[in-house]
């Protein structure tokens, strides 16, 4: 900061940040929203406001666990491995192996989303839960969908690394 | 003496933020909202640490490495957690809605102070 006032300096810094990394929802923030949607349901289940006989058990956590597992698997794959079959330095078929692992990750994530829909239907909709108890199932679906979306955001942002754009504009 | 005014203004904003959070806890005799302060104080730390870890061989490769992205992930997680925690607590009737609003505003003031402090004095250190 040579001759400019602190305000101008701050504005120029903010402008630099905006051009390089726009102020959008990052993957971590989206994952946080997803986790807290579900934690809200679990806390509401134990709170005084829940007058129904429906409660959040371990069964409700299983789809979320699978979604997080799939997200970890997908994001721990190096993206250059997927198309580096020719000059592979660790044996043949690296791209094929990477695709198999990637498929397992996507399968875990899709299974988590489908499992959340299953839990919502079988545990709450079929037994005709009214609204404050129905929120447990809806929050389960919403959090799993948000985890999937955050993984998509991370994937796209890592594949757009060349353009120096980190985030997907939402 | 541009830095002195900045420090004074930032410290005022920080004090107002702490005042709001402590009032939201003390007015309603429910000290769960103090978790917001802990969250926002911890929030920039992963970004700092991972940025420091990657800046050693910075001229070798362009683009961000995975540890920088891990730091951004955790920082973004904690920033949203600072807002989401009072909302969850208020929705589940553990704190009052007024306490929720006060703690969210106070927490955002605290975090804004930390971020602008970093932006002011990190640049000075580099050049």
TrEMBL record, chain A:
Domain of life from the UniProt record: Eukaryota
Entry keywords, A to Z: Membrane, Transmembrane, Transmembrane helix
| Primary site of residence | membrane
Q: Which InterPro entries match?
A: UPF0220 (IPR007919)
What is the protein's membrane topology class? Multi-pass membrane protein
Subcellular localization(s) per the UniProt record: Membrane
| Similarity annotation | Belongs to the UPF0220 family.
Its name, as the record gives it, is: Vacuolar protein sorting-associated protein 68
From what organism does this protein derive?
Rachicladosporium monterosium
Automatic annotation (TrEMBL), chain B:
Q: Where does the UniProt annotation locate this protein?
A: Membrane
- Origin, by domain of life? Eukaryota
Q: How is this protein situated with respect to the membrane?
A: Multi-pass membrane protein
TM stretches of this protein: 7-25, 31-49, 70-89, 101-121
Q: Does the keyword Transmembrane helix apply?
A: yes
Which keywords are on file for this protein?
Membrane, Transmembrane, Transmembrane helix
Gene Ontology process terms (BP): late endosome to vacuole transport via multivesicular body sorting pathway
Return the GO cellular component terms, semicolon-separated.
Vps55/Vps68 complex
- What family does the database annotate? Belongs to the OB-RGRP/VPS55 family.
What protein name is recorded for this chain?
Vacuolar protein sorting-associated protein 55
Designated gene of the protein = VPS55_2
């Amino acid at each position: 900061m040579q001759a400019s006032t602190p305000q101008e300096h701050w504005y120029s810094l903010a402008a630099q940040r905006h051009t390089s990394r726009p102020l959008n929802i990052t993957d971590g923030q989206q994952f946080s929203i997803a986790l807290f949607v579900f934690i809200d349901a679990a806390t509401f289940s134990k709170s005084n406001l829940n007058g129904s006989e429906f409660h959040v058990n371990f069964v409700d956590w299983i789809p979320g666990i699978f979604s997080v597992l799939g997200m970890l698997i997908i994001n721990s794959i190096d993206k250059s491995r997927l198309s580096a079959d020719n000059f592979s330095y660790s044996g043949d078929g690296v791209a094929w192996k990477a695709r198999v692992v990637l498929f397992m990750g996507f399968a875990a994530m899709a299974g988590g989303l489908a499992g959340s829909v299953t839990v919502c239907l079988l545990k709450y909709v079929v037994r005709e839960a009214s609204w404050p108890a129905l929120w447990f199932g809806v929050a389960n679906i919403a959090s799993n969908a948000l985890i999937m979306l955050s993984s998509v955001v991370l994937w796209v942002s890592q594949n757009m690394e060349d353009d120096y754009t980190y985030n997907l504009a939402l | 003496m541009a830095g002195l005014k900045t420090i004074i203004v930032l410290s005022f904003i920080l004090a107002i933020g702490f005042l709001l959070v402590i009032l939201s806890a003390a007015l309603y005799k429910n000290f769960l909202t103090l978790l917001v302060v802990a969250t926002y104080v911890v929030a920039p730390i992963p970004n700092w640490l991972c940025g420091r870890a990657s800046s050693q061989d910075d001229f070798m490769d362009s683009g961000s490495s995975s540890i920088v992205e891990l730091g951004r992930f955790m920082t973004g997680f904690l920033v949203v957690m600072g807002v989401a925690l009072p909302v969850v607590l208020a929705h589940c009737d553990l704190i009052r809605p007024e306490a929720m609003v006060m703690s969210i505003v106070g927490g955002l003031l605290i975090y804004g102070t930390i971020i602008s402090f970093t932006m002011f004095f990190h640049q000075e250190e580099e050049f």
